[in-house]
Amino acid sequence: MRLELFELLRPICPVCRLAGRPPAVLGLEVIERQRENDVEEGLLRCGEQACRHEFPILDGVPLIVPQLREYVRGWIERIRSREAFSEAVESLLGDCCGAGTSFEDERQRLSSYAWDHWGDQDPQEARDAEAAGDHGQAAPGSVQRLLTSGLEAGLAAASALPAGPAVDMGCAVGRTTFELASQLERPVLGIDLDLSMLRLARQIRDGGEVCYPRRRVGLAYDRRSFSISPQLREASASRIDFWCCDATVLPFAGEQFAIASSLNLLDCVASPISHLREIARCLQRHGCGIVASPYDWSAAATPVEAWLGGHSQRGAGRGSSAQLVRDLLTPGAHPAAVEGLRIVAEPPQGGWQVRLHERAVMQYRSDLLVVEKTT
Q: In this predicted structure, which of 37-41, 175-179, 237-241, 314-318 has the lowest mean pLDDT?
């Protein structure tokens, strides 16, 4: 956890927020390991006497989530698995664990997200395509292209973008966080709930190297290792950090960020309407929000009653997610409209790709909106 961003953002207690108490600023109570200005292990603590909840810093990533006990219980295997294995040993462990295990789930997610976020920096990708004669294959980098499209439209439409940091919600393995810092030349905080991906994002930031398991087929993976571009590393690394936070209960005071991005996250949170309201709350006046989603609703991630569209096609909107989200982001268009946001640009819908293995890539079309904080 970079002390510069911790002191700049002064995170507040999400437990107090949920309980309806005035949230206290979190203090850095314990430092167990520190490297220069980066706290690698320690404890944060709420200063409110009625709360005093603690939040750990693990491998440089603070876990500032309201239901910490449930989070740790569900992630304890990955929290404890810190050391990377050699490709041969990892392959054997994967064969032993088999499909449907947390070990395999982690490898698959890292493979899919690291490929799209960073595969365009991997020289082996182009060589593989050339060798296979597959010049029309899906190309990595779709999420970065989605961000660039939204950012260009947002900067063009913004009336007066304020100074201040940016927050990248659902940052995964960090490419969009790097891009925001590089293009905006301001501090950027990447947040996600997947600790494994946050660890990889930090490793890329600290070492300038991407190393991830790229799935071929079944349980067969190849280790891919390559350097990111010096320009991207030098322009971004000193400005970014990665925290584990819930995008529906952000541990920040209101109006802290000039820009907030939420790329392909809206249909992955427990309460999408709460997420939109958190974007409104955390943005400064005239701040810019970039929201993209394929509306790929799943009851495993979001209770059906919390979906924004995707059901109740008997109503006026016939179950359209795109229309309902627009109504929620248009003042007066819906009883539950998000106060303080308005749509200022609708760039063309962008493609988003999730690579499953060497013969399968899931293709999505993400609805892309740019909003401005008005009050």
A: 314-318
- Whether 321 has a pLDDT exceeding 90, the answer reads yes
**CATH code for residues 135-211+229-373:** 3.40.50.150
> Cα–Cα distance between 216 and 318 in angstroms, integer?
40
Give the residue-averaged pLDDT of 85-94.
76
Domain with CATH 3.40.50.150 in the chain: 135-211+229-373
Mean predicted confidence (pLDDT) in 161-178: 96
CA distances from residue 374 to 159, 229, 283, 344 in whole angstroms, order as listed: 10, 37, 10, 11
**Residue for token pair 């974007």:** 279
The whole-number pLDDT of residue 101 equals 85
More confident residue, 236 or 361: 361
CB 368 within 8 A of CB 149: yes
